[in-house]
Amino acid sequence: MGSHKRIINKIEREHIVSLMEHGKRADGRSLNEVRPVKITTGYIQKAEGSALVELGHTKVLAGVKYMVGEPYSDSPNSGVLTVGAELSPIASPFFQMGPPNPQTIELARVTDRAIRESAAVKFDDLFIIPGEKVWIIFLDLYVLNDDGGLFDASGLAAMAALATLELPTIKKDSNGEVEVDENGKVQFVDGETTKVPVNHYTLSVTSASIEGKIIIDPSRDERELQDYRVTLGITEENQLVSAQKGEFGVLKSGELEQIIDDSIIVAAHYREELMKALE
Amino acid sequence: MENEEIRKPVEIKEKDQLVFPGQFIGVIEQFLPGQNTYVEEANIYSTQFGMAHLDRRGLRVKVFPKRKAQLVPTVGDVAVGEIVHASNQMTSIAITSVNGKECVPSYTCLMHISRISRKYLESMDEAVRTGDIVRVKIIDAKTLPLQAESTGINFGVVYAECSQCGGKLKKIGTNKLKCTSCESTENRKMSIHYGSPMALA
Amino acid sequence: MTESERKLINPDGTRLDGRSKTDIRETSIEAGVSSRADGSALIKMGNNIILAVVHGPRELHPKHLVNPNKAVIRCTYRMATFSVGDRKRPAPSRREREISKVMTESLESVVLTHLYPRSAIDVFVQVLQADGGTRCAALSAASVAVADAGIPMRDLIAGCAAGIIEDQVVVDLADYEDKEGTGDVPLGYAPSVDEVSLLQMDGNFTKEQLLESVELAKEGCRQVYLIQREALKKKYSDIREEVAEEIVEEAIELKENIEEDQADITDFMEEEEEEEEEDFIDYGDDDEEDDEKVVDDLLEPTTFFEEE
Hints:
The complex is a heterotrimer.
Chain A: H1 3-21, E1 37-41, E2 49-55, E3 58-69, E4 80-86, H2 102-117, E5 127-129, E6 133-145, H3 150-163, E7 166-170, E8 188-195, E9 203-210, E10 213-216, H4 220-225, E11 228-234, E12 240-246, H5 255-278
Parallel strand pairs in A: 4-6
Antiparallel strand pairs in A: 1-2, 2-3, 3-6, 5-6, 7-8, 9-10, 9-11, 11-12
Helix pairs in contact in A: 2-3
Chain B: H1 3-6, E1 17-19, E2 24-27, E3 32-33, E4 37-40, E5 43-46, E6 50-54, E7 60-65, E8 78-86, E9 90-98, E10 101-112, E11 133-140, E12 146-149, E13 156-159, E14 169-171, E15 176-179, E16 185-187
Chain C: H1 2-5, E1 27-31, E2 39-45, E3 48-59, E4 72-79, H2 94-108, E5 119-129, H3 134-148, E6 158-165, E7 168-171, H4 175-180, E8 183-190, E9 195-199, E10 202-203, H5 207-284, H6 288-307
Parallel strand pairs in C: 4-5
Antiparallel strand pairs in C: 1-2, 2-3, 3-5, 6-7, 6-8, 8-9, 8-10
Helix pairs in contact in C: 2-3, 3-5, 5-6
């Protein structure tokens, strides 16, 4: 996708670069300003946790479903998290139907890494019967409108959906043993749910470089022009938990430091918005 | 609720009336059907969401749509695209925007050498080259591929790269471009919008 | 199971959610929700949340599908993994493909495809939350999205289902009514031209019951149809308000400009008059008193403008 848009943008490129030299951007933002964020939690009642995130015109919907399954043999006591993403023609006329393309998989994996590496959710607690039954959490991201900033919006949506995640309460007998029926199915208490505790609020922040100028939260037009982008996963303690550099441009010395400094400020802003939505 | 209620005709008097697709406007004994209407069993219906308007003499009814599907290029539209192939006689253009609106995927469009400029051209290289971005006017949309022309000061090449080194070309005359890195000069049939974002509008 | 034994119709004839036999669920449609699509609509029908977008008319790829006489409509119906009780697998299922096909055929009947030969009109429907009757709600949303894209249509298609629960024909089945009832008739209907363009049925029906179900579903479709029109109208009036505000702002600006211009003109004319007077006095009078008077006259307008 995007190849033809890039050609058209050759004409606009000079204009946008000259604007950036004056510290301005085509949509009126300053270089390290993000677009307005709107988070709606509990958008999908049928999902165990969900959130709709709007970042400017970009819309990403995240939903969580669960399954009871067997753990991986190397970690018998921890739950399993699977993150999926879908970039369908719903989001943009450039996307096509079909099996996930590398771009989609990158989006899912970058979002997944930020959550997994920071242990944003206590996976160690997500077991039902140690070594036998654990929770398998499916987090699916649907991009409903693509106007750039998909990594940031997906990170926010994923975190908001996990923060609102409530799993069914497991039925336990008087000895504290998990009740299982004759087919080996775990029994749940009717109509009761338990909140899954959140360890860290880890969020993704994307920066892009156009001709040596660093901008935060590139829009769709800027994304077509960017030399490279860097997505950082940042926890509330300003620990960096994941990074992903994309596109064909290369980082020069000193640029990464500026990106990290800017990203930490933006992550705090995103987190503030998230906390407001979760209240 | 019966269908009669939905099929109740709108009353078009002095003021324009809001109509929806499939809205019953009247029968053909009352009006002549105009733009964006269709006739079925002597009944006139609207095809669009918009304003129904009766002409001054009260004879013909037409609908002005609120939103118009404009992506199919028609004769007279201004299109911008990239030259994908330039042979001796014909250039083939991938149209990526029509009247300032992006189209995905691109339309294929042909332009004959005689339609590029009012001047007589010895060869295609004098006017356009592969990879150039051109602003053209559609002159035939009945057949596919589309046909275009680039005569007139508004039309022609709006962005080009040096054919020697790929560097940026700067405008130095009406039809002359100079490379900023290798200093070679090239000829193009240029639009007055060369290098300006106005070219996309 | 206890659920299958429960009564779906209360003794007073209402259903479990309080609706009567002919009531559809609470429905709202919003047109033009996606900035990247040519047309779009979001429908909420009961707990269904469905987004439909339209791209096109645009050039058709692959080329071998091109029809030289009319546009090709391609409708794709997809469900989100979290839209149903148990997680749905992300790959398209046979059910989704079948619904895509019947929806395509239904939309084809109303869109004036001959106006856009050799083109494609792509309709994508994403079910975000499913609660029974998704194909009907999806069809309603899709036709609003097509109208929002400005594509000429013969009529809007409204979708609504009817079915049998406890031997009674009722309209717009919710998820549990669909599962626990004995039959379901999804219907796509264009009320203004009176055409049924989508009809499916499963369950056990007598001839009379099926005909009654279709009539009742049409009744539901008409209710949806009015909501569809309302959605288009609302979007239009929103635009009109914006435009009206802009016009008012422009008018105010224009008025200010005119006032400024007028002030400039009066300023200029008075200056001219003064100059004339001055000239006249310079050439024609030597009286000192008159000179003083002239000075007073010159001062007067200045004070006048300061007051302004």
